[in-house]
Amino acid sequence: MSNFDSALTRLLNISHPVVLAPMGGAAGGRLAAAVSRAGGLGLVGASYGDPDWMKTELALMSDVEEPWGVGLVMFTVAKRFELLDLALSYGPDVVALSFGDARPFIAPIKDSGALAIVQVHDVDQALAALDAGADALIVQGAEAGGHSLRRASLPLLPAVRDAVGEDAVLIAAGGIADGRGLAAALLLGADGAMLGTRFLASDEALPSAKVKQRLLQATAGDLVRTRAFDLVRGIEWPEQYSGRALANDFTARWVGFEQELVRAPASVAEDYAQALREDNTDVRAIWTGEVADLINDVLPAATIVEQTVRGAEQALRVAGRRFA
Known EC number(s) (predicted)? Predict the structure, then answer.
């Protein structure tokens, strides 16, 4: 059992201050359930909101007695509000919102009895989310896999803590893959940590063994930031956001030539869609954070939770002895 008792564990009624990032296409019901049952908070990554996918994965949470939640991308749900209604119909304890204006969503979430947690990337976003009524904030640094802004976690987290005060509940995200990262986040002012890329290399994550093996072979030097994967999929991401992914043949062709991709013939998007169906890792996006160097094995999600918590406890004990 974890020795950690934080504002996050008390708010969510969970044992460990560890949260699964709601990674689209990766964090399905099986993974979210495993994290919640291990004492963390599992979040199903509904992402852009495919209703059929949501129904399949959220149905897997029906017998999970521990707190769990669902993650949604706000700029998509703002156009299709019924996706929020669908998510809430499964009775999540938490809805995690990212990339957009949280104000239209807070009241419906709270009216359902769930908590609203909002991901932010700078101090202004943090203040706005709390003003909108967020119960907690996910403070995401640019080290994260997938989409983010440009501020790194190390200066961002204490800056947000200073701005929002001690009462706000903060979850650190971006650049955390083990207990050392969790310990550092707690010392910087977080009440817990969200892990994404580390859980991508879990038994329960949805991507194939081929994708996971590609991740295990990667280092931070193999990553690129680009909008190319969004452009080829026709997803209208806000312009200030780009995504961090593993470099491959697709990025070698299009990174730096994104404007050409905008004007590319429809066959390019069709080829990319075919690559997704074939799980062609030389073409498809594998969203990966800078923690790629730290991930060397695929483990059960429960083991990852346990190792992260034990590692944080050990890291804090070692630091205490070193600087006592």
Answer: 1.3.1.9
How far apart are alpha carbons 300 and 204 in whole angstroms?
A: 7
Contacts 24+ apart (CB under 8 A), 230-236: 231/258, 231/261, 231/262, 232/261, 232/264, 232/268, 232/269, 232/272, 233/269, 233/272, 234/269, 235/48, 236/75
Query: Where does CATH 3.20.20.70 sit in the chain?
Result: 7-206+295-323
Query: What's the CATH superfamily of 7-206+295-323?
Result: Aldolase class I (3.20.20.70)
CB 231 within 8 A of CB 57: no
User: 181 and 295 in contact (C-beta within 8 Å)?
Assistant: no
List, for residues 236-292, the tens digit of each pLDDT value. Answer: 888 899 999 999 999 999 999 998 999 999 999 999 999 999 999 999 999 999 999
Q: What is the mean pLDDT of the chain?
A: 96
pLDDT-derived band at 1, boundaries 50, 70, 90: very low
By three-state DSSP, how is residue 31 classified? helix
φ, ψ for residue 146 (rounded to 5)? Answer: 75, -145
Report d(CA 25, CA 47) in Å as an integer: 8
Chain segment 116-148, per-residue pLDDT in tens: 999 999 999 999 999 999 999 999 999 999 999
C-alpha to C-alpha distance for 13 and 293, rounded to whole angstroms = 32
